[in-house]
Design goal:
binds magnesium ion, about 30% helix, Alpha-Beta Plaits, globular, 10 helices, Rossmann fold, alpha/beta, binds adenosine-5'-diphosphate, 2 domains, six-stranded mixed beta sheet
């Protein structure tokens, strides 16, 4: 299965949902999406609510049929029988059967993925341990916390050691500890050689986890690239935090207005490395207090906001993002 150059590929994916009582209204969820994911990567699909992320994942999982376009997993169409055993899926807001115990639920998932006998039992115990649920495996799922449910759902997705993991908003709704655990588990999957595609509206998760990311707005791909390239293109810029200086004074010192941000009575100035030393002297002479100097990061957040603006936000594309 790994012979295909791409773990995942989508070309010209378009999805139009028909809604309304007479199915006479249309919602365009995807508009010609292109996607190529190389094996061994963690690939992020980032976008606001309604961007078409879940629709994309559902098409890949053969849960939704595209209106047009094609998708392939390891070179096979999403419905291909052989693919099932190589793919694990964590749906958005997973709802495992709540009267099963965690153990029963993961065992069921393993069996559906083709495991049996001792191999099944061993794998179930291994993944329950991995997601830190060994102690709760005999409890019914309805007694689980949100974080435990999410980890259990991940356990069912990885019980058969799939080559490809598809995760829909794996960290949303989790507390900081839960989010951290989930991030670590996702990194473990890449470490064992799996390819991970996950979608999220949580920018820090993309920065923490992804090798590459595609930014999706209004069903369209608006950016794609290595996370480092997308966020790191201001590598030679410093960010100075300054107190006792007004915006007007900073502008008079030659800092472009776009590179000045006001934050709780302080100014954040973005300055090219080359001119930073000179500016520092001038700032100090002007009686300002420089309280912090750090390399500026052009955050994915800023990139995202800019991209949404360019894509004509305000209407259907301006969903909520977690920063
Ligand atoms: N089953 C459906 N029927 C009708 N419209 C849908 C359905 N699923 C999603 N949509 C619409 O398609 C758009 C994209 O939804 P979705 O793929 O869930 O986005 P995301 O996961 O990025 O929030 C939204 O406008 C949503 O309301
Ligand atoms: Mg979604």
């Amino acid at each position: 299965m790994t012979d295909a150059p791409y773990a995942l590929q989508a070309s010209g994916l378009t999805k139009v949902y028909r809604v309304g009582f007479f199915l006479n209204r249309q919602v365009v969820a995807l508009r010609g999406l292109e996607l190529s994911v190389e094996p061994g990567q963690i690939y992020g699909l980032l976008g606001p609510n309604g961007a078409g992320k879940s629709t994309t994942l559902k098409i890949l999982m053969n849960l939704v049929q595209p209106t047009s376009g094609t998708a392939a997993l390891f070179g096979h169409a999403p419905g291909h029988a052989a693919t099932r055993r190589h793919v694990g899926f964590l749906p958005e807001n997973p709802a495992p059967y709540e009267y099963l115990t965690g153990l029963e639920f993961v065992t069921l998932a393993g069996r559906l993925a083709g495991l049996s006998g001792k191999e099944l039992d061993d794998r179930v115990q291994a993944v329950l341990g991995q997601v830190d649920l060994s102690h709760a495996q005999k409890l019914q799922v309805r007694r689980y916390s949100k974080g435990m449910v999410q980890r259990l759902a991940l356990a069912q997705a990885i019980v058969h050691s799939p080559q490809l993991l598809v995760l829909d908003e794996p960290t949303s709704g989790l507390d900081p500890l839960g989010r951290r655990q989930m991030r670590d588990l996702i990194l473990e999957q890449r470490a064992r050689g799996a390819t991970v595609l996950f979608c999220t509206h949580i920018i820090p998760d993309v920065e923490a986890l992804c090798d590459r990311v595609v930014v999706l707005v209004g069903g369209k791909r608006v950016r794609e690239g290595r996370v480092q390239e997308l966020v790191g293109n201001e590598g030679n810029t410093l960010e100075l935090t300054v107190e006792g200086l007004h915006r007007g004074q900073a502008e008079a010192l030659g800092v472009p207005a776009a590179d000045i941000r006001e934050l709780e009575g302080r100014l954040l100035l973005r300055v090219p490395d080359a001119s930073a030393q000179g500016l520092l002297r001038v700032l100090l002479d002007a009686g300002a207090r420089v309280t912090r100097i750090q390399p500026a990061r052009f955050t994915l957040e800023e990139l995202f906001m800019q991209t949404v603006k360019e894509a004509g936000a305000g209407s259907s594309v301006g969903g909520e993002m977690s920063l």
